[in-house]
Design brief:
Length: about 625
């Protein structure tokens, strides 16, 4: 869409238009963050060039001192953020300031409800970035010259549908972002206001941020002469290199926002300097909320990597396992070479030991959070619990630690909230109990109301109620915790061990013997449908239930695999009957077709409460009606 030879008009990508609209309408109560975002971009641009100049010192030979400058023009009503970083070519301007690269953006925006659209945290979570300038400006002009190039380009937009590109003049490399402030936002020209925003948000940035010195006070009869000398406004040392005791919580939080593009504050962080055989500094954060694209396994993840304080790369995923993909932070190593690449990182032993160290820090940080602030931890678990569970299969060496972080719903309080730890469970165990019991089911309600729990409820034995999709797989990775076996209550023979006393055992054996003929009759009627029929000792209130045979895949697992499109051989259940139950007693009195109806009805009923559905519900209902009518 060329207008003249040197000026082109372009439309923003649809997502950008939507985001611009949302931002201006949701972030007005926190306008000043635009400055943080633009300074953050300028600092990133400097980091990128510093890295590039390691290979090509010529790029910065003419202007080797990196800096960011903030200037104002009262008359024009403009505020300018200038940097001498990497700059942008015409193509860069077009793609960086005309589209949003992150995948999933469109879906994310379209899924927001009306209320969510006004929620600054949600919008911010996703990185407001450059476009936040339009919260305070009705026009933005960007003039940029890429390092090593001799062309400068101008990008300009009023933040609605379009932007313009044109050739421009700029003597040296770098970028000016010029905000034409809205009439009501002229406050941002105020020197003092700008200084206080910069030190609030940008102290931790390692690049110097400079402003003009205040004007000299005027002599009698003369006008005050504006200063032409710049001075430093921020601290300009990389935050993680400073000593812990000098850094305030506020500074840690601002730094987090800078590196994570998250709007919300982090839940907790760990800052460690390690010296000796290995030298590195790590600063790792736990975000408050899960990002909208956490389940996208391709999303970028990992820490920002520095080597000897030089920025090397974003999203260095080699230092954190997939199940800790939500962690954000910085790693600054003295042992890696400055020219390190992703390929080198992959096979380096330094990487491996840094990764181990990072994992330890993160798990330690979570343990500490769980101990010191149960409420915060609960929120964390709600956001990231299902990701942590992946660690049971992914990270064997830390399995016990990961298991300690798990939280479950349980029969202890019978609520859906997952707030019971394995340690709390063990603490409540009676002396006779030596196993940790759990049940997995399709939903919390199915788990909670499962007939398998009857004997446990009667004896007051706690059972963990698992119903997240990942649970069946995750829990199968965890055979024991602190020397206690984890046992599914729906699988295999229920061995209550010492939980049963002698009298109970004798009684059970007696009932088993007496019911043998009845068991045989059920077997005959059910035939191929079942693997076996047994007298139950897990039921007290229900007539019958089905159990997965010991050693076979559990029924829940088989369902999950079938749902995932796997060809599953049919697993025949063990059918357990409760001979004390009035319905079973009633059935035992019948014979012929009538007994057959009873047997099939009891079996279908047990299948129904196990899986929540039946292959042939019509026949089941007809049979039930027939029995009711008699
Ligand atoms: P983010 O910083 O999260 O990538 P932004 O919206 O803040 O997103 O910026 C978009 C992109 O524009 C940046 O990734 C960068 O490539 C480019 N950019 C923005 N400001 C500058 C700058 N001052 N110098 C060079 N590139 C910049
Ligand atoms: Mg940015």
């Amino acid at each position: 869409m060329s207008e003249t030879a040197s000026m082109e008009k372009h439309s923003f990508q649809t997502e950008v238009k939507q985001l611009l609209h949302l931002m201006v309408h949701s972030l007005y109560s926190n306008k000043e963050i635009f400055l943080r975002e633009l300074i953050s971009n300028a600092a990133d641009a400097v980091d990128k060039l510093r890295f590039k100049s390691l290979d090509n010192a010529n790029l910065i030979a003419d202007d080797p001192e990196f800096r960011i400058r903030i200037t104002t023009d009262e008359k024009a009503g403009t505020l300018t953020i200038s940097d001498n970083g990497i700059g942008m070519s015409k193509d860069d301007l077009m793609s960086n300031l005309g589209t949003i690269a992150r995948s999933g953006t469109a879906e994310f925006i379209s899924q927001l409800s009306g209320d969510q659209k006004k929620d600054a945290n949600l919008i911010g979570q996703f990185g407001v970035g450059f476009y936040s300038g339009f919260i305070v400006a009705d026009k933005m002009t960007v003039i940029s010259k890429a390092a090593g190039s001799d062309e400068a380009w101008q990008w300009q937009s009023e933040g609605e549908g379009e932007f313009e590109l044109a050739e421009a003049e700029r003597s040296t490399r770098g970028t000016d972002v010029i905000l034409h402030l809205k009439e009501a936002e002229k406050d941002f020209l105020n020197d003092w206001r700008l200084r206080s925003i910069i030190s609030k948000y940008s102290d931790h940035i390692s690049v110097p941020v400079e402003m003009l010195k205040p004007a000299e006070p005027a002599e009698e009869g003369e006008e005050a002469k504006p200063s032409t000398e710049f001075e430093l406004v921020n601290k300009a040392t990389a935050l993680w290199t400073r000593s812990k005791s000098d850094i305030s919580d506020e500074e840690y939080k601002e730094f987090y926002k800078h590196i994570s593009h998250d709007f919300a504050e982090p839940v907790t962080w760990a800052h460690n300097k390690v010296e000796g055989k290995q030298e590195y500094t790590s600063l790792l954060y736990i975000p408050k909320n899960a990002p909208y694209d956490m389940w996208n396994r391709e999303r970028s993840r990992g820490v920002k990597l520095y080597v000897q304080r030089v920025f090397i790369m974003d999203d260095a995923e080699q230092f954190l396992p997939v199940y800790l993909r939500f962690v954000r932070g910085v790693l600054d190593s003295n042992d890696l070479p400055l020219n390190v690449s992703r390929e080198i990182l992959q096979d380096s032993s330094v990487t491996q030991s840094l990764k181990n160290a990072c994992v330890k820090r993160v798990l330690g940080m979570l343990e500490k959070l769980a101990k010191s602030n149960a409420e915060e931890y609960q929120h964390f678990w709600g956001q990231f619990g299902n990701v942590i569970k992946e660690g049971l299969g992914e990270d064997f060496s830390n399995r016990e630690k990961i298991a300690g972080l798990l939280r479950f719903a349980s029969t202890h309080n019978d609520t859906e909230t997952q707030d019971v730890s394995l340690d709390a469970y063990i603490e409540r165990m009676g002396e006779a109990q030596d196993k940790i019991y759990y049940i997995t089911a399709e939903s919390f309600e199915t788990a909670k109301n499962s007939p398998h729990l009857e004997v446990f409820r009667k004896k007051g034995i706690e059972v963990l109620l698992l119903s997240d999709r990942i649970d069946e797989w995750a829990i199968s990775q965890l055979t024991d915790y602190k020397d206690k076996k984890l046992v599914s209550v729906t699988q295999g023979d229920l061995d209550l061990g010492d939980l049963e006393d002698e009298a109970e055992k004798e009684e059970r054996e007696k009932v088993e013997k007496e019911s043998q003929p009845l068991v045989e009759r059920f077997k005959e009627e059910l035939g191929e449908r079942v693997k076996e029929v047994k007298v139950t000792h897990r039921l007290t209130d229900s007539p019958a239930c089905v159990v997965s045979p010991e050693g076979d895949m559990s029924a829940q697992m088989a369902r999950l695999m079938a749902a995932a499109g796997q060809d599953m051989p049919e697993i025949k259940p063990v059918f357990e009957i409760n001979p004390e139950h009035p319905l079973v007693k009633l059935a035992a009195e019948k014979d012929g077709d009538e007994f057959k109806d009873w047997a099939l009805f009891l079996f279908d009923q047990a299948m129904l409460s196990e899986s929540g559905s039946l292959k042939d519900p019509g026949t089941f209902t007809r049979r039930l009606n027939k029995l009711l009518m008699k």
